[in-house]
Amino acid sequence: MLPQSRPAGSTLDTHKYGFRVNRVKTTIELPDELLIAAKKRAAELRQPFRKLVEDGLRQQLSDGRRIRRPNRKKFRWVVAKGGLPPGLDVSDRASLHEWLRKQP
């Protein structure tokens, strides 16, 4: 089956199973310290390195408009007095699961 033609300037490409966005793979050379810092930052933001680079490029190429990031949900730590119950070892996953199974 021949690929379907698309309108000029279209960013979507037809695919056997639907539509997909065109992406181009490229290689860039970065200093080691910059790459390491960028990968750490991507991990802190819990996003792929590719998205960090994409967002940075979009921000640099925009007309001074900042990219809005979704608000991160904050959570509150619940702290209770008394410590861990006797016999609970949180450093050993197997014993932790076993302890949880024994609980009523």
Describe this structure in words.
- 35% of the residues lie in helices and 8% in strands.
- With 104 residues, the chain is mostly helical.
- It has a domain at 28-67.
- Strands 1-2 form a two-stranded antiparallel sheet.
Compact description:
With 104 residues, this protein is mainly alpha-helical.
Produce the secondary structure layout.
Layout: E1 12-15, E2 18-21, H1 32-44, H2 49-61, H3 93-102
Antiparallel strand pairs: 1-2
Helix pairs in contact: 1-2
Which features does this protein show?
single chain, 104 residues, mainly alpha, two-stranded antiparallel sheet, 3 helices
- Structural class, by secondary structure, is mainly alpha
The global form is: elongated
Strand order, sheet with most strands: 1-2
> What is the total tally of β strands?
2
Low-confidence stretches: none
Helix and strand run:
EEHHH
Report the mean per-residue pLDDT as an integer.
77
Describe the sheet with the most strands.
Answer: 2 strands, antiparallel
Strand content: 5-15%
Number of helices: 3
Distance, first to last CA: 61 Å
Radius of gyration: 24 Å
Helix content: 25-40%
